[in-house]
Amino acid sequence: MGREFLDLFQDWADSYDDTVTGHDVEYQAVFEHYDAILDAVAARAKGRVVEFGPGTGNLTKKLLENKLEVLPFEPSPEMREIGMQKLGDQVTFRDGDFLDFDLVGAVDSFVSSYAFHHLTDEEKGKAFEIYGKYLPRGGKIVWADTMFESDRHYQAAISAAIEKGYHNLADDLKREYYTTLDVFRSLLEPRGFTVTFDQVNAFVWIMEATKQ
Ligand SMILES: C[S@@+](CC[C@H](N)C(=O)[O-])C[C@H]1O[C@@H](n2cnc3c(N)ncnc32)[C@H](O)[C@@H]1O
């Protein structure tokens, strides 16, 4: 459950850091301001931080630089290996995912960048239910990910990608579980969270949910 897109990362792991620095033209707009986006997520995290889908460890590095305790859970062995090569002297990349992770003790923040769209909306709700049990009042979930203001915006992004001949991007937008802001609100508010959204490029928003 939730790990259905892992095969993609087996092939992508080695070139992933080239993609985020703009080498893949189809994904340039998705990764525009990547570094500043990760800085903004790291700045909102506090205390003991669980990170999901750290990939090659770019957000992990920023969290560590901010002197936070970080527990990164990454399901892809190829990604974990790269993360460990880069940061293994400071942190251990554990096998785990958004819904299945071994954790003892309280957590102040759950963070993730460019990864939560791998879960269906039903799985997203289950994930928020789990995190709510770990977080104290004031605890946070901070995600940076592609999301859309409405279905109309989502469909327009797919059409624009097709028009530009960006077929990999269009297929990705159609295949994975990108979600609208209203869906996030409907999954979080009944579970006792308040939520804010800030758009940071044409695709990516930072979602910050706070436990009440
Ligand atoms: C696009 S990469 C993002 C990597 C990194 N967070 C970043 O911002 O560059 C998506 C990551 O999510 C991981 N992933 C895929 N399915 C996942 C799941 N169900 N739970 C947690 N992580 C998952 C992938 O292995 C990959 O490392």
Automatic annotation (TrEMBL):
MF annotations from Gene Ontology: S-adenosylmethionine-dependent methyltransferase activity
Domain Methyltransferase: 49-139
GO BP annotations listed: methylation
Binding site for S-adenosyl-L-methionine: G53, E74, D97
Domain of life: Bacteria
Protein source organism: Rossellomorea marisflavi
Function: Could be a S-adenosyl-L-methionine-dependent methyltransferase.
EC number, UniProt record: 2.1.1.-
Family classification: Belongs to the methyltransferase superfamily. YrrT family.
Protein name per its UniProtKB record: Uncharacterized methyltransferase AF331_01710
